[in-house]
Amino acid sequence: MDKKNRISSVVFLVFILAISLITGCKSGTKPAKEDEEVKLPENITEIKQDIDQAKTIFNALPSPLESAMLIKSAGAQFNENLLNSVSKQNTYVTSKAMALNLGVYTCDLSFASLYEQTQLLIDYMNAAKKMADGLGILKAIEQEDIDKLEENINNSEVIMDVVSQTFMNSSSYLEDNGQPATAATVLVGGWIEGLYISTQLVDMKEFNGNKLVGRIIDQKLSIDILIDLLNDSKGVPSVDELIVQVTKLKTVFDKIKLTTGNVKTEYDQASNTTLLKSEVTTDMTPEIFLELSKTVAEIRNSFVN
Amino acid sequence: MRLIKTIPVIAILVFALNASADAQCKAFAKKECLPELENYTHDGNYHAAVLVEGEEAELYKTFYSDMEYRVAIVGESKLPAVEFKIMDINKNVLYSNKDHEYASSWDFKLQSSQQLKIVVKVSSFNRPGDTPASGCVAIMFGFKLKK
Fold this sequence. Notes:
The structure holds two protein chains of two kinds.
Chain A: H1 3-23, H2 32-37, H3 44-53, E1 55-60, H4 64-73, H5 95-114, H6 118-134, H7 143-151, H8 156-176, H9 180-201, H10 211-218, H11 220-231, H12 237-253, E2 257-260, E3 264-268, E4 273-277, E5 280-283, H13 286-304
Antiparallel strand pairs in A: 2-5, 3-4
Helix pairs in contact in A: 4-5, 4-9, 5-6, 5-8, 5-9, 8-9, 9-10, 9-13, 11-12, 12-13
Chain B: H1 2-33, E1 41-42, E2 47-52, E3 56-63, E4 67-75, E5 82-87, E6 93-96, E7 105-110, E8 114-122, E9 134-145
Antiparallel strand pairs in B: 1-9, 2-9, 3-8, 4-7, 4-9, 5-6, 5-8
């Protein structure tokens, strides 16, 4: 190697080590002195300026558990026929299908758990475990989680904890192991399943003033977040396909009118909670709802079939 | 020549170190942030990143009128104070923990569902010339049905 290349390589090595030092997350118990001993080169001010301008963006969709809770809080009845059958689990063999159906099954199991459908809950937890195992997600759902569910089948608090814990294990594993596209795909699967179940549960004879319809309109607030989340992984073929499908859904959501006034805060000392007060006006005709419902069903069916 | 062979090995090591850092963030989030949710049900979502002094992160999320929420934002102890602001879509600041002694959580409920923006910033020790401190910052949400 000539001298010039050797110098370039040394610079590259120093650069890699510097980046590693800046971004590495060390244990909180490590003494501060160890950090102070490491000095970066003179251009530290420039580095700090760059850091000041840097931004990490998180796009947070409602989790499957939150989606299921919204459906229940709107007073909807449980309908097992709307869930994706666990008998299909062996047909999901591609990473995309397994990721989407990990989200779908997690939403279904959340739905089953909130309506105390105990045997279904275990079946769906096993189906979700199969998807997670297929994606190579280590320790997302372990046998002991399923045993814990069986032992606490009448304790909704423990069940919700297990469900949220297993979902966190899956998403954090994927994020931490450089698979944000798969993590986003799981979230999309769960979100679409929640929307599918909601739209199917609406009784058109009681459309006006239906609380569930209100929750469905609220999902318009998340559609741009969803698209931003997918755009972070644009270029991944399976994600690009999802972007096309979700953009079609956005076109329908765009037909729904939703205007929000200024938000005012009102603090309640007794509960130590702040109420965010605002006026919102919405308008969705039955025709637009049916179009939305049809589009969601098409997308969801493409995920599960 | 040996150096050329060494570089990919070091690059792989650095990648592995960063993956390990992320895994540590998950452990940190579970140990330090999750308990802050107390009697709220964790929604199952996981948001954590290694941030450096002065660095900002933003989070966008829809919150629903049927729920009561708690947002918990915790940084590693070696970091300076972690500031966070909650803003509506018109960028009006609804809450800033700077006005509440850098509280690590905030409880709220909504009259109407809203998309809110959460801006998190690691403040600075203001020690010119020193290596900027870096560490994990975790953001978690808990919910319960509105009473």
